Amino acid sequence: MSKILDKERAMEVKVSRAEQYSWASLTSLGIIFWWFQMRMLDGWTIVDQSAERLLSIYFVVIAATIALEVVIAVVLDALGGGKAPAKDERDLAIDARAGLNERLFFIGAINVLVWQALWEGALDGHGLPRIDLTRLPTLFFALFTILFIGEAVKRLSTIWLYRAQATHD
After folding, report:
1. Is 162 exposed, middle or buried (0-12, 13-18, 19+ CB in 10 A)?
2. Which residues, in sequence order, are CB contacts of 132 under 8 Å at separation 6+?
3. CA distances (Å), origin 162, targets 5, 57, 95
4. How far apart are CA 132 and CA 50, in angstroms?
5. What is the C-alpha separation between 55 and 113, in angstroms, rounded?
6. Residue 141 pLDDT more than 90?
7. For helices 89-122 and 136-168, what crossing angle results, to 10°?
8. In which element (H, E) is residue 85 found?
9. Largest pairwise CA distance in the chain
10. Alpha helix (H) ranges present in 1-135?
11. CA–CA separation, 141 vs 28, rounded Å?
């Protein structure tokens, strides 16, 4: 029986502080995005709002993000005994790869918006679904959603890369 328990303990994956941070940050990102989309959407329709209202939504999202990230850092620091974890080459490589994935997502997503705007102008009157990027609320929602998803891509990439590394150790 003790051999089985030893094998189970050996199979447990130790979660690094970077992975804990990514999970916590991803959760807070989801909460903030939920709040954001509740202010921006009515069903699947983007609500028409003034620039002042959009600016206030922007500031609340930024402030909430900063506050939650500080709380996450403080809690993880306290749980880690107050010592900052040393980053080795593996941590730096994972950070770099996750950052690259985020950057590739941003490039692709912004290009989709550019193509959407160009096709809207070039194919006036087409029957395809339309995204009116000339409306400020639509443009704001599209760009801010890209920022949210880009950050999620980075956090998910970090988690996946740490997990993939742990299975190879």
Report:
1. buried
2. 120, 138
3. 24, 34, 10
4. 16
5. 21
6. yes
7. 150
8. none
9. 72
10. 2-11, 17-40, 51-79, 89-122
11. 19
- The string of pLDDT tens digits covering residues 144-153 is 999 999 999 9
The one-letter amino acid at 56: S
Distance between alpha carbon 153 and the CA centroid of its chain, in Å? 5
Which pLDDT band, with edges at 50, 70 and 90, does 32 fall under?
Answer: very high
The residue type found at 85 is: P
**Token pair for 56:** 């206030």
Residues 35, 37, 41, 43: what is their CA dihedral angle, to the nearest 10 degrees? -90
* Cα 70-72-75 angle, rounded to 5 deg: 105
Amino acid at 96: A
User: How do strand 45-46 and strand 41-42 relate by DSSP bridges?
Assistant: antiparallel
Give the model confidence (pLDDT) of 90-126 as tens digits: 889 999 999 999 999 999 999 999 988 888 878 777 7
DSSP code string of 121-144: HHTTT-SS----TTSHHHHHHHHH
Residue 80 has which token pair?
């880690």
Tell the residue number behind the tokens 């709040």, with chain if given: 35
